[in-house]
Specification:
32% helix; globular; 3-stranded mixed sheet; binds zinc ion; 3-stranded antiparallel sheet; alpha+beta
Length: 113
Amino acid sequence: MGVIICSKHGESGFTQRISRSICDLIDSDTPISDENLSIVSLNMYDDGEFLGTNSYLISRDELDQAGVSEQNDVTTEEQYDAILDKLPEMSGVCYDCLEEYKVRHHIELLSFK
Ligand SMILES: [Zn+2]
């Protein structure tokens, strides 16, 4: 998680790997339901050793357009980049703004962190 200067919260955490279209909805305070969301997970392995998972929050429509699975095991950078290339443009939002948005609209965002 990086750091940004939020107009509302000042120096704040930056939640990344959210598609730009969803960031726009959060910025404009437009609710989005979990049914319209999906998380694409890239589970990274090196020589059979599990390194971690990077998750990307995108809309259901964007998932359909990308044509990728929600769970992906990747072992090379090339595999990782190939999947990332298919995903929509990614952006991020202020962590505190995201938390407030979730509470205000009772949105779970599929427990995305
Ligand atoms: Zn903020």
